Amino acid sequence: MNIQEAGARTPGVSGATKKPYRGKRGGGEAKVRVYLEGRYRKLARGLPQTIFYCPKCKGRRRGCAFCGGYGKLTKDSVQELIARKVLPRYKARMGKFHGAGREDVDVRMLGGGRPFVFEVVQPRRFDVDLEELVEAINAYGKGRMEITALRPVRRKRVAELKETRSDKVYRALVVLDRVLPEDRLQGILGEPIVVTQRTPKRVAHRRADRDRTRKVEVLEARAFRGPESQPCLDLLVRCEHGTYVKEWISGEEGRSRPSLGELLGAETDCLVLDVWEICGPFPSVETKGPEPCFDSVMEWEQLLREEDPWDLERLKDASPRGVTQAPTEVEPDPQEEQGGQEGDEGVLA
Prior knowledge:
Helix content: 10-25%
Mean pLDDT: 86
Strand content: 25-35%
Radius of gyration: 21 Å
């Protein structure tokens, strides 16, 4: 699992980061924090990257009819599956998840995975076997998510991951309104396409309504018969950072031009979408050695042999109540526990 030494362990306080904690009155001792870097694959739809707080009560729970007083819309997230194993081992009550971007709750993260840093706040133990920790996380999330080996890093690594503008490779199951000739599919391959996108309607309430120019390149387009024998495309596309891929595929009533449908001369709709690669790189000023990576390479041809390679069974329940998860601007009360399943392995965020 790309661990430099067998039985690698977290450095002591001297190797951890101390961050001043001022508190409400401006005083207080420094909080010790441990930062662990890795990559995760999200193998199932319906699993958000971070805690999916209720949009009505913002995680406060009490008296909320929308979430039934639960405070969130999904039982688990990548953040929680990791935290439930990390926090008890460090004897910490609070952790934070920092991802290099995020995917929608109904989108899988496959391929080489997405870089992340998990921040452990105020640990009371440092002698943690990272190899055993990774095995515990992967066993707990089996079939839903998995991570690479973890390596201790410094706080600056969080900013390096978040500030890197990276191209991404997506794989999409596209439904067509007709069968297309092979030469038309081949005609869109390999050439960068400059796309102008107006802010999509689904995010217009929290993003500025303006036009953005992005580059898109179709790498593969394979025609086949999909669900209910519909004409479909297995599409592999590389996009510049900030591209709204689903809207580029559908065109969204002319808000993305030229859309995939315009290029093919057909009506196109994105049934499901997966992130296949976060291209990076993510260079580090302080951290030496190779970035975490998975031992095994995920092959799409191998996934196609599975009974449900696109995970369509979970699609109908993938977006709880039709709500889109918005980035959290203000963190909910960190003292409110977020529904741990294993007693002392609850997660605070």
